Prior knowledge:
By secondary structure, chain A is of the alpha/beta class. Chain A has 12 helices and 8 strands. In chain A, α9 (176-191) packs parallel to α10.
Amino acid sequence: MMQHTVNAVMADERAASFTRRSIKTDSKMQGLRLALSMVDLTTLEGKDSPEKVRSLCRKAIQPYDGQIDPPLPSVAAVCVYPSLVSVARKALAGSNVKVASVATGFPSGQFPLDVRLRDVAEAVEAGADEIDMVINRGAFLAGRIGEVRDEIVQVKQACGQAHLKIILETGELETYDNVRRASDLAIEAAASTGELRGGEVFIKTSTGKVQPAATMPVTLIMLEAIRDHYLVTGVRIGMKPAGGIRHAKQALHYLVMVKETVGDAWLTPELFRFGASSLTNDLLRQIVKTTTGRYSAAYDFSEA
Amino acid sequence: MDTSAESRTQSTLINGEAESASEPVQWEYSPAPERAAVEIADRYDLFINGKFTAPKSRKHFATINPATEQVICEVAEAGKADVTAAVAAAKAAQPKWARLKPQERAKYMYRIARRIQERARELAIIESTDGGKPIRESRDVDVPLAAQHFFYHAGWCDKLRYAFPGAGRDPKPVGVCGQIIPWNFPLLMAAWKIAPALACGNTCVLKPAETTPLTALRLAEILEEVELPAGVVNIITGGPESGRALVEHNDVKKIAFTGSTEVGKLLAKMVADTDKRITLELGGKSPNIIFADASIDQAVEGIISGIYFNQGHVCCAGSRLLVEEGAVDIVVDKLTHRLQSLRVGDPLDKNTDIGAINSKAQLSTIHKYLEAGRNEGAALHEVNGQPLPRKGYWCRPCFFTGVQPSHVVAREEIFGPVLAVMSFRTPEEALERANNTPYGLAAGVWTDKGSKIFEIARRLDAGVVWCNTYNKFDAASPFGGFKESGFGREGGLQGLRAYLEL
């Protein structure tokens, strides 16, 4: 594996430059709708109930009940714990919203490998279209790179037809050099299992349980790894920043970064997702404001 | 990287023909022009002795917007008599200004700095309209830095005795300073010249460049607003003749010039048998050295800001790219990819990265070099396919590969968005190639290895060496050149030296 280092000062500077793009009028509306279609609507709490997941699924299929012309898209997926996959599967039947499930001992990954693999298998069995796995950060930080690679390979195989998102938990990796190395490692491990279709494998920043979660520079570095892999192999790996993206304006900054780093081809839910919950309503708020000229109150949008 | 990967860089990555199931969108940024209305008069006079004064020459000339080729307004052309009047006003004002309590001088300078901040948006718009640079740069770089120079130097006014211990209690100013500035950073260069001169108790006559006089005139309005004593700063517009009259005037005790090496040499000859002192900040052909162990993605950003910042109209532009042999292909591929996302066009659009070339004359100079490069056998890469506006002066960002150090494009300053890419094998060869130039203004070094940075930086003949970054400026940091890039420093403590009798 070729080692890519990252110069933190310049990476931060480049990431900040995307936030200075001015996205107005038509491009703003298009960007907001696009971002909405890329949301993985997520609930990952100990107190999650089947009823809450059903509400979330309803929201996912039809994010807004008012009239918007043309009609708004559904979000990309609903992301839940494995125990609630069957509930989500049922609630989303007939829609094109995907069921995503975290697995492999989310969020810490501190479980024996066979337990983590069974976690994956059961989530797939219950009907998950996509598995969000966590890497073994302990092994990565201790330098046991081979171990991390082998585990990713086994999880990928356990996924079968389900798509795989590999969570690096960048907040625990701390340095940009580590983020880049983990990105390259995850992509390389997944690619070693056979020929990948575009979007079959994603790399994802965070679980949302560790601070900092997704940031612009970290996402930039991961996108650069994705771009470099594409330039060599022609395979498009997906990208999912998760945690901490709450505002529509932030989402537009991310889309600008995607466009200018990997290109327009990635501007599709097949290849780019936002792991977020509160982002959806801010996107809706901005879309409604752009359409009607008025800001809506927070209670005008359903919680889930 | 194989060749098919290279062709992917060229076409699909940005244009996006995807094989994925759902159709990817073409997401284009809508125009985002800076819309604030700025009043510009039809005609401007000379700022002499605290007042806008009609030129005795009775001549005016037009200044045009290089993005549209339309006349913006007319400005006065200072004749010999006008220069004499300006110098006389500066001479008359100087003793009183120098005797003013230093903290009082500082107050005026703080006021100027704050007014520049308050009128920042207006200044940025005028700068971009008159000079063609993107509003993003005039807004985020030129104007804030100009204000910073006044803030910084205001702080020196009452501390000069500590700046040069041994020079006596209060080092004396030199007198009337004649200052001639270029068109690439009009307001910023005015600040670089005026701020240290005033801090040291001098008075000035400043001549902005012929193609970009408007922000200096706006600065004159600010000087009026802050009630700077009449004659302390005089701003005269005009061409080379006005500049010559200023340099030749007997009462001017110091010349400060930023511009081409050719004119710099001429000025040095003109003052050779006089009592005038002179500082020159001239051209460059600065090397940007990338080692294979550098963080390549960030180094590519450094190449971009090094050569394409301000359309390459930067004296310290990193116009010679020296890449370690093993990294040449990957650097060229990534540069090719990155260039495609640069947005060329309307300088007033907030999403524009590359604006208009400053003047028709400069555009034809750049074209001359592009032709020379091709004629000498280098390969020109014009990979940015953005449509250009029909009117105006434009040059897409580009680079040459297959360049030999003896090629014209590797030796002469082009002052445009044109990069010459060369390779080296060992650090010694990198140094040899980097220093093999008549210039010595700036250099960049990119490596992840700290010891290499210190070794290379120490041995580069350049006034500024940027390590793992490029084109960073600060009022506290001295700027200036080695060899034919000039002498004297501007900014920092060192920059005060030229404005004091030490």
